[in-house]
Amino acid sequence: MTTPRESDHTFEVSVITYREDSMWTALALEMNLRGYGTTPETANDDLCEMLIAQVSFAVQMGHPESVWNRAGDEFWRMFEEARRNQFVAEFSGSQQSVDQIANMMPLPSLAMKQRDEWVAANA
Asked: Domain extents for the chain?
């Protein structure tokens, strides 16, 4: 198993992206933040912007733990099922469902950069 280097400033968030009628929702499970769009990609882009805003603000206020707000169990089960289905589809060559997509989204480096600046300013 590899461990992150001190210079690596990444943190991955579990994301379930799912269709609701004609719209898509991307949900960061550890933080219970949502992004919305007409495609999975635009929903994930919107979520990324939400993550940057929330994490940056929390870090600037000195309370990064405040963004940690676990999503409901039903969304974790949805993520686990989608992840399992993606694994099975990948290794069996079968067709993957497109209505639920599980992935890991790296926390944007901008938020991590602001964390470094806040820590340095308050040292």
From this structure: 12-115
Mean pLDDT of 15-40: 96
Q: Report how far apart, in Å, the C-alpha atoms of 43 and of each of 47, 49, 89, 122 are.
A: 6, 10, 23, 35
The Cα 107–Cα 101 span in angstroms is 18
Residues 13/104, Cβ–Cβ less than 8 Å: yes
At position 6, the amino acid (one-letter code) is: E
CATH says 12-115 is which class?
Answer: alpha beta
Is this structure's pTM higher than 0.85? no
Distance CA 106, CA 75 (A): 19
Structure tokens, 38? 């007409």
What pLDDT does residue 32 have? 96
**Among 96, 115, 105, 117, residue whose Cα is nearest residue 44:** 105
